Model the fold of this input.
Amino acid sequence: MRKNKLIQIRILFIFGFLQILQNGFSFDLKDTIVNQVDSSFYLVVDSNARFLNGDINNFRIYIMQNLTFQDDYTIINKIIFSFDVDWNGKVKDVKIIKSSGVIGFDNQLVNLIQNSPKWTPAMIKNKRVGQRFKMPMTICLQ
Done:
């Protein structure tokens, strides 16, 4: 009796799958594998998230190359900001923890980080996970 129920379940699954294919429903098989991603955010991971296939220094270079400085900026103090890179490599939740004192500069930094290219996600035990970054930056203009 149990064997018949198993066969019926398999047939129903295959039939349902064929109906989905006929109706044009598409999906990405890698997203259906639940055990390969973790939507939590971690500070410590086995393999850090990578920016443009490099380390965090590539991200610092990206910021410095893409920030524009207004004529009225003088010396900007230390800035501390945080952001998350989710399990899919997207930057989220950018926050200024300690302001530079120049609102326009802080806003520009937040926009730059939010619009940065996609990252390679962090890994813990071969699972893609989110990683939280907290970074200081000191910029001195002369």
